[in-house]
Amino acid sequence: MGDLIALRGHLDRFGRVVVAFSGGADSAFLAWAAHDALGPDRVVAATAVSPSLPAFERDDCAALAGEWGLNWLEVETGELEAAAYRRNDPDRCAHCKDALMDALAPVAAEHGATVVLGVNLDDLGDHRPGQQAAAARGAAFPLVDAGFTKADVRATSQQLGLRTWDKPAAACLASRVPYGTPVTLSVLREVEAAETGLRALGFRELRVRHYGDLARIEVPIDRLAEVVERRDDVVDATRAAGYRYVTLDLEGLRSGNLNEALLDRDRRGSTSGS
User: Fold this and answer.
1) What is the distance, to the nearest Å, from the Cα of residue 70 to the centroid of all Cα atoms in its chain?
2) How many other CB atoms are found less than 10 A from the CB of residue 260?
3) Tens digits of pLDDT across the chain (274 residues)
4) pTM of this prediction?
5) What are the start-end ranges of the E strands in the chain?
């Protein structure tokens, strides 16, 4: 079970921190805890703005900063300028975190602070090369150090009255693009437009996976029937974003499920080599 007192102790030992603040449940909780433990003069909540960040997430970061009195800063990241990132191999997240650290390191140096990310214990079990890249650049993971799982973050946030406690997970838009398919500005805009249209229909938790002119929609299993019932609206919203074919994933919403292809590849490799 995550320990809020231990988290405050870890943050206090850092003295000053720059929180990578995406507005999700984890980074929001970390930003609030840092602000509470250290005060606004020793905490910068920095939001990385790029085409991979949905506009509504940026707006919510601004709103949260105002509500909580955070010392908030926007920084632009240039991951799309890197050919290695656009190539979208399994290490794409490492290139993204390098771009993030390129933007946050000068802020941290200016304030004599440590960059901290909202990584929790559950994140350690998936394919997350970005975590390794960030750690190699000096970033710290206080939620991990204090023993917080995703469930702990949500439960503690709820106890504290933070409205982000039940906010759906919202990974960057590039996570909707299968490895090997180039990440471009037009692709990210298409994905965002489709998800914005579906969110306007009331589907709060969703992913639109991008397969060229085909969109694969993921929603929680208990809402699959509603998507079918509202088929015309769903198709119209998705096609308005630029997709020609609209499909529904009957396995439902699974965060990070594009990593399953990597696991399948590794299993096939180990089998063929045995």
Assistant:
1) 20
2) 11
3) 778 999 999 999 999 999 999 999 999 999 999 999 999 999 999 999 999 999 999 999 999 999 999 999 999 999 999 999 999 999 999 999 999 999 999 999 999 999 999 999 998 876 678 888 888 999 999 999 999 999 999 999 999 999 999 998 878 999 999 999 999 999 999 999 999 999 999 999 999 999 999 999 999 999 999 999 999 999 999 999 999 999 999 999 987 666 565 555 444 454 444 3
4) 0.89
5) 17-20, 43-49, 72-76, 114-116, 207-211, 214-218, 245-248
Q: Please, what is the end-to-end C-alpha distance for the chain in angstroms? A: 40
User: Which residues lie below 8 Å from residue 20, measured CB to CB, with a gap of 6+?
Assistant: 27, 46, 48, 100, 104, 115, 116, 117, 118, 139
Q: Are strands 72-76 and 207-211 parallel, antiparallel or unpaired?
A: unpaired
55: closest CA among 238, 221, 195? 195
Are 90 and 127 within 8 A, CB to CB?
yes
Strands (E), 177-261: 207-211, 214-218, 245-248
C-alpha span between 25 and 150 (Å, rounded): 9
Q: How many residues does the chain have?
A: 274
Burial 175-192 (b: 16+ CB within 10 A, else e): bbbebeeebeeebbebbb
